[in-house]
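[recover] target loaded
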């Protein structure tokens, strides 16, 4: 059972996540030779204040 974890900043709509989940699932089914009902996609929405790159919080970038 493949599990795909997607970490991204908050702000995507329900529709965007639904489309992304479908596209990811289709790719996993096609490439990994599994079934859609055994493919899990988990979205972790992360606030920019909880994400840093190069020692700088994403919320502090201009």
């Amino acid at each position: 059972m493949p599990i795909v974890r997607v970490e991204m900043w908050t702000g995507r709509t329900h529709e965007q996540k639904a489309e992304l989940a479908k596209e990811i699932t289709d790719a996993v089914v096609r490439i990994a030779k599994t079934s859609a009902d055994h493919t899990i996609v988990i979205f972790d929405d992360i606030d920019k204040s909880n994400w840093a790159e190069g020692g700088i919080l994403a919320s502090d970038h201009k």
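[recover] notes: The CA atoms of residues 42 and 60 lie 27 Å apart.
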